[in-house]
Amino acid sequence: MFGFYKRMPAPMRGALMMLVATAAFSGMHASIRAASTGLHPFEIAFFRNFFALFVLLPILARTGFAVLRTQRLGLYVLRGTLNTGAMLCFFFALSITPLVQVTALSFTAPLFATLGAALVLGEVVRGRRWAAMFVGFLGMLVILRPGLVALDTGSILVIGSSALWALAILCIKRLSSTESSVAITAYMAIVMAPLTGIAAIPFWQWPSAEQYLVLGFIALLGTIAQTCMNQALHEADASAVLPLDFAKLIWTSILGYVLFFEIPDIWVYVGGSMIFGAATYISVRESRLKKQGKL
After folding, report:
1. What SS3 state is found at 149?
2. Contact (CB, 8 A) for 282 and 129
3. DSSP code for 107
4. What helix, strand, coil percent values describe the chain, rounded to 5?
5. What are the pLDDT digits (tens) for 192-241?
6. Which of 45, 71, 105 is nearest to 174 (CA)?
């Protein structure tokens, strides 16, 4: 099986890894939704990060703990704090909002990141990307339809999560200029585990044996998803694999209907497609500009 995978052309390997990543992310989100019927979303977030520490230990043992030496601890803490806020908002939204709607609105993160790069980092954003951002945010309004439909808490939380995650991305951009990917990943779990643990204290209850299995499954799916997405971007150009991220809408549509009997209205798909198209264009455009040395 592995030999067959290695014989595949690189773009095809990247596409396969991206599809596996989207399925794993969607499965993780559905598992969080299911687990939230018995555990508070903040507690689920804590265990997601707590189990991640155990996944990281063998990696740190192999690379050496010296990789954690840094002069940028403050930026790591800021990134972890922003990431914690984003995760808590997202996990809570998953517990109260249809899976497809959460997925569609989560595609706004690259839009917020591009806006933040222009306003905070002073990055030059030209007409095409401004136009794409306009289309993406218009898609967000199509889903929310303010004035026609009451704004629900879950949708507001997803948008807030995307905005916080976008700020975290800006921190990662700064860190990646001097820090290793292993250190960036490790510090994320090191900072987020205690912060999400503090957030979970008011709602704490000890999980049952069955719930521990579900929590471990969530952590496993998250690890698979992140690993496959990173491998997809390693195997093929972003322009070849990022469009496949749209598969999340398909997977969450199926899981939402089969597991939770959710049938979102057509505007979620229309708006989600607009947001996804805009976000994908921005990501592909930025990738090409970097290759040309214009970004």
Report:
1. strand
2. yes
3. T
4. 80, 0, 15
5. 999 999 999 999 999 999 999 999 999 889 888 888 887 887 787 777 78
6. 71
